[in-house]
Amino acid sequence: MEKKLGKRILSFVGNENNIQSITHCATRLRMSFKDRTLVDEEAIKQLNGVLGTMEKGGQFQIIIGPAVNSVYAEMIEGTKFEGETVSSDSKEKKNIVTVFLDTVAGIFTPLLPLLAGSGVLRGIVLLLTQLGWLSTESSTYTILTVSSTAVFYFLPLLLAFTSAKKFGANQYIAVAILGALIMPDFVALMGDGGNGTMSSFIGIPVVLMGYSSTVIPAILAVWCQSKLENLLRKIIPVSLHLLFVSLITLLVMVPLTAIVFGPFGVYVGQGFAGLVNSLMSFNGWIAGAFIGGIWNVMVIFGLQWAVNPVMIQNISILGYDRIVPLSSAANFGMAGAAFGTLLKTKDTKMKSFSLSALLSIFFAGITEPAIYGIAVRYKRPLIGAIIGGAVGGAFMGGMSVNAYAFVFGGLTTIPAFVGDTLIYYVIGLFICFTVGTIATMILGLDEGEVTVENSNPNEKSEIKVPLHGQLIKLEEVNDEVFSSGMMGTGYAVKPTVGKVYAPFNGVVTMIFPTKHAIGLTSNDGTELLIHIGVNTVELNGKYFETFVAQGDKIEQGQQLIAFDIEKIEAAGYDVTVPVVITNSDELSQESAVLEFGN
């Protein structure tokens, strides 16, 4: 099988060990090397998908074009650079909430298929026992039970592995550290005392805890392990890494985790879970309405990742959870919104999309297609989904519905809720779906606000010049990537006003973190790249301001970006703006229009 472009490039630059740093801007990969002689530049130029190479400012640059994001991802996949926040030249710091959510998502995402599969299997086993088809005294029951619950017992080991990948630590050492804490010999130290039993390590008090099924201790321990390993690799000679990095890491981290991170993580996890569970117990109707209603909004911003560990820990320790049903309520509220859209829309393409989004929820518990393709697009179905989730969630919360496995709410995962409250769960789902559907149909779609497809796909959009200034030929741009035409056909503008406007009706397909470049796609499929200045990526967003985000729909003449011409030039940068069609050569200067009438 032919290698992906990113991996082929990696092989021609001497592989990851020869790369000192790697980033990318809007059009090219940027790298520096330990040994430049190992780079086969001619071979790289011959690769299909590579537009050219150049060296500037001590960086080796490979020109890719708009596909640079995916090529970069392919290149660092499975390398030491994967997971590092260097996917661009932007040094813009993420806020602490974003970093936290990104970290939790990176740790738990690889485990979700296993958790979901185990949850459904556990539900099937419970259903078979409820129906009397499987005896709890049989060996078959035991084998099926351990098959479905092993993921929770050994959860610290699984989290150690995924956390190590996220934090850049040795994954096998991480597993060994957490594995030591669930070994029978360590557990035996507690005797009959249980959690909180006191012991000691070289005279230091140790609060003994049971670590099977726990979440936070593994994450904290591996984070500390990653810092220790980085330090050891700097101070220990490379020839001794094989032996002493693992030796010292185990020697330090196992006792440290048992003394500090383990007990702290267990108490924090239990406290957080207890707080959430107390809120649920205080008034299930109110808590159910709130969580069921707000959950889809949380998914839009990725905030559900902060709650998932609580649900997983509840099931691991208590054997049940009451938040999982409420997330299912939100799912079926969104399913109702999708069904309401299917019934309400007159657009055949949207009918087809709504049906596929609905089936995605029913059979997999996956709401993202409905959320981003329907709810966010039309806005009003999101309100319908919130109403449906809140009403059904209130019922489920009020009836104290339990989930016995961590699953995504869909029809196929109903066995995970088999128990005394199953009937209330099913009724709750019906309420969510019905209310979500009716609310969406009453609220309507107002399809005039959104164009699902171009009304006349054969008619080309008029492409206006996106900013005021002097029009020049692309060949005159002081950047070989653009002047050579390797990025595509177009023109450039010497701007007189630091404002970029939408040249047509369409959507923002890419906006770079440093705000100096934006990719647009018109309703008829024309792909346009507007690149403000030459090498202005180095300004890291300084002197730029954006007014749109990736995925936003735009109208011709709408302001997209503002930039300070004088300050950019004072910083020593050429502010010429290349405007390039990256998928066509049909743009000509004669067809351009300079004025917007404002």
TrEMBL record:
SUPFAM superfamilies, alphabetized: Duplicated hybrid motif (SSF51261), Glucose permease domain IIB (SSF55604)
This protein's UniProt keywords: Cell membrane, Kinase, Membrane, Phosphotransferase system, Sugar transport, Transferase, Transmembrane, Transmembrane helix, Transport
Topology class, membrane: Multi-pass membrane protein
UniProt entry tagged with the keyword Membrane: yes
Cellular localisation: Cell membrane
Domain PTS EIIA type-1 span(s) in chain numbering: 479-583
TM helices/strands, residue ranges: 99-121, 141-160, 172-190, 202-223, 235-262, 282-303, 355-375, 382-407, 422-445
Protein name, per record: PTS glucose transporter subunit IIA
Protein's organism: Candidatus Enterococcus moelleringii
Taxonomic classification: Bacteria, Bacillati, Bacillota, Bacilli, Lactobacillales
